[in-house]
């Protein structure tokens, strides 16, 4: 079996295995798997509305996944996507609510603000890693909490006058589109998906086709060799965190300027950043992989909401299935071994 | 729709309940779920009561709820319920304001209600509570119970609702015992019991003997701390005050009272009005003491001056109901508040 | 016949590749038995089979006449087989003693009795004349001592049969002499030794018999006393080999590299290069001879900008380059074949093609406006691969999949092709077979003949002697002597490297 | 507030909050010392918290006052069992350790909540009636000053954590088991050639991490949260991961780091009562623990080196 074919079949098998085990769990605990999956499917694709919602959910997922994946490719583990996402969201709404500008300026400005905010937030761990060799995992974890509290404070005290929620962003900064909403029966689908797809392309192009990408990948694989070859390893580490944070901030803009149009005081993390880790890993840290795994995650997450109502199955079941899929993808080595065994038999 | 789950819930789903296009009602919880021992639970209890009183079944066409797993799910859940043709859909919690606002604009022929926030749409009923009034009363109780004249307040995340709790509470303390001081501390989270516990520990150690926590699950830490202290030293004076519902089950020796927010009453009330065709769309319905929307839970029977406290609470309740006293709902109002 | 080890008709496959094809190896008690073969011939594989790391697909192993199944290293240990691996199997952060007792600890009441263990290590090390410091951390000791630790590991476990996989590749001449002495002691103590080495001279010196394998197949076993290096080489590669590198006398011109009073600290903050002066002229090869750890690595790292220098001056073509960025230095005409090809030389997870432009990927024609031109990159790769005879299935396979020799050829191709005015070659032939070594030496000399300056650092005195036009001896971070290879011999160099002054060395000749 | 008062408040709450972190971080150390990256600590804590609460609620009638301790042991077993999934994936199936760890976290979260709903028909359990309680340590409590600060109004579990940390240090650095465990995490091939079963050691490392993570979760649940809901374990596992790295993969380091985190947290709580901090916005106190940690890392900790073979797969005969 060719490597490429294997690369496509393995995740599909992993997904199937995840679903099979999920089915077993449901059977054991006395639920009806068929109606559960039916509900899941209906909740994701059953109506055009839900389809719109899936795409809406996929949008920040793609970007959060790219953020994690990008850092991974340079050998860094950015657990801080959640925090970068939060500051990006905040910055986007801040700009979106504070100015009156023509759309052609306002929207890009808000998006850039989010990107820059996320990038700056990620610059901190990047800088500390590069200059002082401080482990990025701890710093990003700590910065997640910091982002949460700081953004809550700013929302209450700066963006609003002791309110829990900002006002809506100006129309001129919105990613929303009446047309997109109308064709999807009032889902919150917005133009952000275009940005997310473009970012997939950017990530691929940047890493695989550019000189900078060459450096980023080289540093990711072997810092010593990269240094030997004259690359600036420290700068590359910082750059990769900054780009990763930029994707994360952009993901925040998707929620700030698209899905919600405002930002609220948060009592806890949104989870998007953490889902981004699973998405990136499932997608093998490649742009295309992230794209597809974000779609899978988005569909599962949105579809799951329908399961308690339509099938009486707790929607945690979907979390279990997602976890299992991640497991099986991770264990693709064993899947490949089995595949090869079958492959050989076929030949003989 | 399948065997076992139906048995579990003891109820039926909609599939075979197509007798008539009866009134149906549903709610969307925030991430806390219907068992948060707080207002989601209270709301669901109200909805269940309403359903049972009206002979409805759980599920589509009757009454049900959907739990959100993140902020971005509110909208989808509200929409799903609206699409399933529920006549009235509640959004529980101020976090859902944006989502309700939006969906209400799209689904103009459906009725919505939001708890703890205001949405200015003709098809949305906004339910607000005068939390300050309940917490004023528990503040009075605290002020009359304290021996050290030191009282504590633990807030979850700084927000408008918690601010109402805080200002009402402080006003109550001030009114009943001007010598008492209130140590206010916010945990920054509704789900960090360890913070609640540490803050309570600090407060008790520094001489505070009554603490009121308006902090969701963070408050569980306070109960734990008080129970621990009580278990270790039965003579310790460590009182706690619960929130949202009567939390006396969190520690029978330490819970003084609770600032109860009758979300269940409000939900039943609005649902009933909607069913009868009096849906208060576009309006804010305020639930205060006068409307039985908030209350102070019964005072712990082991408090020495229980009768005095009860009397004082009764007096203040009357004053508030009559409008003679206006309890401050913000810290700004608190500054100018003078108990008459 | 009294064989301690018999490996009969061993076959070992990796996937579809047959690494050992029906090989037979018989070792007599008390002999040093050499195992000879080109890179990738299957020597290490065969020994790993004997040591229980691999399971053979076919064949039989007998120890002292008894057929055995060696399922894992524990079994090998129990059978008295010990192995000193080609790549040292030492835990860097452990002490010498901890490494030796690992897996067979001396305990007291559940905890490791480190005192007693250290005494035991000391005892064995004295018995066999293997000087080590039982308390030293592996990362702090010299390669030679690390190897002694490896040997001690086997002796501690009571090994009767010792396998040495290329033990001398990483040693200095002094250390090699010591090792040979140690091997002789071991034989006297009744042990048997299997020795893998590419150095025919060593085989001639210590081995009793020699088994030659080629491309996974056994070629034959000969008595060393009845053969000569030429015959061994012929058996190994299948045709005649020229040993002596042909070269014309050097025609040195202006100074390309000038180093003055260079001071560099090592990673632990100790002064490693201590006021070093050296110059290399265009059209000559200067070899740096020295015992490992006398500042060679730090010197090279300082020249190439990989390590900060404390003070001094490094000029290339008259331009001061001290503490400049590596890229700046490279662009000023310096090429560098690094000592550790896996760590520095290659990105193992990149295709070999991308590794070929590791240093100039950002320049035209490989990159335009920040965008890579893969067509040009792979054209270049193909050109270098064929020109430098890099054996690889294609330019798209990962560098990881190439054998050490071919990886090295790729690096050399890349560096030479950049045509630097100064080429620094650190241990360029370490672990390579004679064919590959010859190829690399010829390339270095070719560079010289094109009027380039070459700085060669090697622990192989043979290599230094035959390739260099001048030899600079480094000792404790200083060049202590510069000698003409035609006017010196290994003994004198060895003494200089050990710190004797030229005069003393001279009187000792 | 006098210094003494501050200490009496800060120290016990520091230890309270540190205990679960220490246990879980120690778990992480055993796993990573054996060469298996374990970011699934959060999930292991979840399993421990869930199991202990369910067990406590179910068997409190049987075990009485011993219930929380028995529940601790049950949670330990459950954590160990659950961690086997990570072991199988990361060691036998050669899964990327990080990916598998993420899956552990996702799976634990989903499974526990699924089971809570399945078992209790609602989203959270009832409150346990017998948790770990405040105690005064006999004898020690009477030491002047020290006794009042360290040994009064505290929890057995805090001291258990300290003892276990020291014990873990002893195991890892002084016993043959520890030597083998570390060798497998540093240079598995070397260990293999010394006859050490790399796979077995790594399985043990992961299982111990599961056991300790389970205990960490159980302590949290039974000494702080008192019930189990989706919010019970929310980020503590990641804090434990940070404590492990902060402590440089050394049990005593993790002990220190756990205590540091607890201290930073307590300081932020006490801060609002200190005169000079009273008027600064609350947000500074809320972020103080996290900012302090970052500063500590940049200031005096320097670089932390993971075991060399951490996160790699050992494939016999591979390079
Ligand atoms: N783990 C492995 N997987 C696949 N093939 C391998 C593996 N190890 C060795 N080989 C193959 O077996 C051949 C013999 O390798 P081996 O390491 O035994 O060579 P060697 O004679 O020791 O070479 P050298 O002189 O360079 O040490 C190699 O050329 C390689 O193709
Ligand atoms: N895991 C592996 N998969 C595939 N091939 C391998 C693997 N490990 C080793 N090889 C093969 O082994 C061969 C040589 O292995 P070996 O380690 O003996 O190289 P070497 O020439 O001795 O290198 P070095 O000089 O670094 O010791 C290579 O041809 C390589 O293809
Ligand atoms: Mg070899
Ligand atoms: Mg070799």
Question: Any overview of this molecule?
Answer:
Chain A is globular. Chain A has helices spanning 3-28, 33-46, 48-73, 81-98, 103-132, 136-159, 178-183, 192-209, 211-221, 223-228, 233-259, 272-282, 287-304, 307-311, 316-330, 332-347. Chain A is mostly helical and 348 residues long. Chain A has a domain at 60-284. Chain A has 16 helices and no strands. The longest helix of chain A is centred in the middle third of the chain and has 30 residues, at 103-132. Chain B has helices at residues 3-9, 39-53, 73-83, 97-106, 131-145, 160-176, 193-205, 218-232, 263-275, 306-322, 331-336, and strands spanning 25-29, 63-67, 88-92, 111-115, 124-129, 150-155, 181-186, 210-214, 239-244, 255-261, 284-287, 294-296. Helix content of chain B is 41%, strand content 19%. Chain B contains eleven helices and twelve strands. Chain B is of the alpha/beta class and 340 residues long. Classes of the chains: A mainly alpha (348), B alpha/beta (340), C alpha/beta (509), D mainly alpha (319). Chains in contact: A-B, A-C, A-D, B-D, C-D. Chains A and B meet through α3, α6, α13 and α14 of A and α1, β2, α3, α4 and α6 of B. One adenosine-5'-triphosphate binds next to α14 of chain C. Chain A: Keywords: Cell membrane, Membrane, Transmembrane, Transmembrane helix. Chain A: It is found in: Cell membrane. Chain A: It holds the Pfam family BPD_transp_2.
Blueprint (SSEs and pairs):
The complex is a heterotetramer of chains A (348), B (340), C (509) and D (319).
Chain A: H1 3-28, H2 33-46, H3 48-73, H4 81-98, H5 103-132, H6 136-159, H7 178-183, H8 192-209, H9 211-221, H10 223-228, H11 233-259, H12 272-282, H13 287-304, H14 307-311, H15 316-330, H16 332-347
Helix pairs in contact in A: 1-15, 1-16, 2-3, 2-13, 3-8, 3-11, 3-12, 3-13, 4-5, 4-6, 4-11, 4-12, 5-6, 5-11, 8-9, 8-11, 8-13, 9-11, 12-13, 13-15
Chain C: E1 3-14, E2 17-28, E3 32-36, H1 43-50, E4 58-63, E5 66-68, H2 73-78, E6 81-84, H3 96-101, E7 107-108, E8 111-112, H4 114-127, H5 143-156, E9 161-165, H6 173-188, E10 192-196, H7 200-206, E11 209-214, E12 217-223, H8 229-237, E13 255-265, E14 271-281, E15 285-289, H9 296-304, E16 309-316, E17 319-320, H10 326-331, E18 334-337, H11 341-345, H12 352-355, E19 367-368, E20 371-372, H13 374-387, H14 404-417, E21 422-426, H15 434-449, E22 453-457, H16 461-467, E23 470-475, E24 478-483, H17 490-497, H18 502-508
Chain D: H1 3-33, H2 41-63, H3 67-92, H4 97-120, E1 134-135, H5 146-150, E2 154-155, H6 156-174, H7 176-186, H8 188-193, H9 198-225, H10 236-246, H11 251-271, H12 282-301
The structure holds adenosine-5'-triphosphate (ATP) (2 copies) and magnesium ion (MG) (2 copies).
Summarize this structure briefly:
Chain C has 509 residues and is of the alpha/beta class.
